[in-house]
């Protein structure tokens, strides 16, 4: 098991818990919970694999991943009352998930021989797309449009990854540091309510959009 | 023409009729009807092919399938008043469709050398995903969240398939019997209003979710 | 750079501008604008590549395309007040986009050795699917259901392509003429408010559907 696989597994756990908690708070039935946890967790990697042409897509040949998600759903279910009380848990698991998945996506892009910009995009897709499908399925505004420092944190972390690589840092350090960069930016953005500069002046931006939908 | 191809064709017919009837009841125009019938019918298989890496996806090299869907749309259109009166027709065609497609998906998973759990998942995707895209396109709650003994019937049929295979039944019997298992469970679930046990106590479950969306 | 690549680039520009304008009028933030422009522009081609099995999908190995979209977003942003005043600009760029993309899709289908019907379908998908994802993301009725002479124009242009090819016209003329056929039909349809014949009698059709959604 190399570092990518370990990070991928940790990301899977974080997103499976985050997905299951989201499904609980929507009061979906047992089957709906498993689907939402699975989609949140494996959706981004699936799109990444389809786009770069890994076949069959990773989770199909990786039963550990499938078992991990199922076990996470059961554990999350048992501790749901406790987890849902700590409202911030959902958010924190999600932040850890995007941090780990971003860098997994970037590394797979590099292995496929893609341009750094495309690698970062692939990192973003791996990290954010599971949440986007989840939101489309439960009929909410996709997460990337709601919280503007979400995908931005992934792009930032992807940039940090290539920067550290360029200054000659060893790869086993580059991975965790750039994953932490994503998580830190996401957490700081939520704590301090960071917003991207609005292109429409004061009144506009994300809030304006939310009411329009 | 082997048994998979025959079953696939029958499933295509069942879903094309079911999709066209759904589009009629939404009063879509001629073009919308063809798209919805096509998506309902070929959507699940398309995702299955993309996930396991069949290229190009089956319907692109199988004109019979395309002609079948178009002919079904025309025939369904001619008899629409009669078919829509029998409200249960739509449901029955859909049940037959998921029964046949589930087992087609399972068999393709086996041919790709995947784990039985993944094969059953692939059967579910083949059977349910066409309906999910149809529902997203016409802006309804995806079918797998509305009717909880829907995907469950597919999983049950997939289980029956591997069980019968394990006890040594001949493959030409395993296929129709497990397809009938899916159809029977789906029909019985609707007739007797089966529900998955709610994880939220009495008040919750599918109904609670429907009003939330 | 051959004719397909040139046409693809022009289509990319047209759709990137059209997507960015749509995002401005929805008041999305800077990040949302780039995503919508990118999805509108590259979404159709991405699905086409996935369906026929090009791997990795084209835009991943074509940085020119990525830069083009980003430059278009910036230029569109600078001239947005001026462009949004001319309401018809958005529509015209969209019409040019579907014209060019339809024929790019048809040609890629031919190169993959697919049946003419499938090639035309592929042209439609390339042209329309970017707009469909855009509409799903911003929570609108997908464009192919709203405007019934939209995909129809693509099908018409695809038919013109094969007709001209059959009568022996040189390929370098077939491409632009059939692209213009799509654009002309789309523009004429909007100007003269063409509708597909409704299968439900006078009251029905697209308008009936719009109010139902």
TrEMBL record, chains A, B, C:
Please state what the protein is called: Trimeric intracellular cation channel family protein
Q: Which Pfam families match?
A: Gly_transporter
- Main location group: membrane
Q: How does it sit in the membrane?
A: Multi-pass membrane protein
One CC-aspect GO term:
plasma membrane
* Location of the Glycine transporter domain: 6-80, 92-164
Q: Which organism is it from?
A: Nonlabens ponticola
Family note: Belongs to the UPF0126 family.
Q: What is the lineage of its organism?
A: Bacteria, Pseudomonadati, Bacteroidota, Flavobacteriia, Flavobacteriales
Q: Which UniProt keywords apply?
A: Cell membrane, Membrane, Transmembrane, Transmembrane helix
Compartments in which it is found: Cell membrane
**Parts of the chain that traverse the membrane:** 6-24, 31-53, 65-83, 90-108, 114-137, 149-167, 173-192
């Amino acid at each position: 098991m190399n570092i990518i696989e370990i990070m991928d597994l940790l990301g899977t756990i974080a997103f499976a818990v985050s997905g299951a908690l989201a499904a609980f708070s929507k009061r979906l039935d047992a089957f709906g919970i498993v689907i939402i946890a699975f989609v949140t967790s494996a959706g981004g990697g699936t799109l990444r694999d389809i786009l770069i042409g890994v076949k069959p897509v990773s989770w199909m040949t990786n039963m550990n991943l499938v078992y991990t998600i199922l076990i996470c759903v059961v554990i999350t279910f048992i501790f749901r009352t406790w987890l849902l009380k700590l409202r911030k848990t959902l958010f924190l698991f999600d932040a850890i998930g995007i941090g780990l998945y971003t860098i997994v996506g970037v590394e797979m892009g590099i292995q496929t021989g893609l341009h750094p910009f495309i690698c970062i995009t692939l990192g973003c897709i791996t990290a954010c797309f599971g949440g986007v499908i989840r939101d489309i399925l439960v009929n909410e505004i996709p997460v990337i449009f709601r919280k503007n420092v979400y995908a931005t944190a992934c792009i930032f972390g992807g940039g940090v990854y290539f920067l550290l690589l360029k200054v000659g840092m060893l790869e086993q350090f580059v991975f965790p540091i750039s994953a932490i960069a994503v998580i830190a930016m996401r957490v700081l953005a939520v704590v301090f309510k960071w917003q991207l500069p609005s292109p429409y002046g004061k009144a506009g931006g994300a809030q304006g959009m939310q009411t329009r939908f």
